[in-house]
Amino acid sequence: ILTTITTLYSKKIKLKDLFSGPFTILLFFSSLMLLVGLMFIPPQLFFTKHIMYIFYIMLFGIMLYPYYVKNKNLFNYVALTTLAIILSLSIMAFINPNMIKDSWGYYLFYGLIFLLIARTVEIFTLFNKKNKKKTKWLSYVTIFIFSLYILYDTKKLMINSENCPVPGFSPDYINESLNLFLDSINIFTNVYNTSE
């Protein structure tokens, strides 16, 4: 992601060139197609899946580029904060995996549905209105939910890693890491929103 962002910055690519007209729609649909493709391509197609994953990461670098252009110091601060959150939660999950229950998945899913509805309402009710208090509150809730997702997905990753030596079980490392990657991106963007 950082390589994509710094390359765009060094080439002096303007935001209006990236995020205007049909290119914005192309970015959105490309990210959706790559995500669906990554989820449904079997792990036996090793190179295809890895190349798509690299393109997906590069696409997220393009999507995070405006954050970098807006404030480089804040971007670096948020990146380190996000890294600290992810590392501490992952270590916590590895040290005490029994505290994370399988039933969390249902509650986290409902929390995710709540976030989608709340963000949709926010888009339509706060459009062109600068109500930072409500936006920050929702960002804090998002950070909390995706922090719990980091714990939950790390435990799922640990369980699936134990199943690797089982005959007939084909591990899908890309899909396993994709969950943590998406959790991390959501934490990053919401920590950025609360830090502005």
Describe this structure in words.
- The protein is an all-alpha fold.
- Helices cover 80% and strands 0% of the residues.
- The chain contains eight helices and no strands.
- The chain has helices at 2-10, 15-18, 22-40, 46-70, 72-95, 104-125, 132-162, 173-195.
- It is globular and about 50 Å long.
- It starts with a helix and ends with a helix.
Question: What is the 3D shape?
Answer: globular
Mean pLDDT: 88
Note the gap between the termini: 21 Å
Q: Report the strand count.
A: 0
Element pattern in H and E: HHHHHHHH
Strand proportion, as a percent range, falls in under 5%
**Structural class of the helix and strand makeup?**
mainly alpha
Oligomer: single chain
Low-confidence stretches: none
Q: What is the count of DSSP helices, taking H or I runs of 4+ residues? A: 8
Radius of gyration using CA atoms only: 18 Å
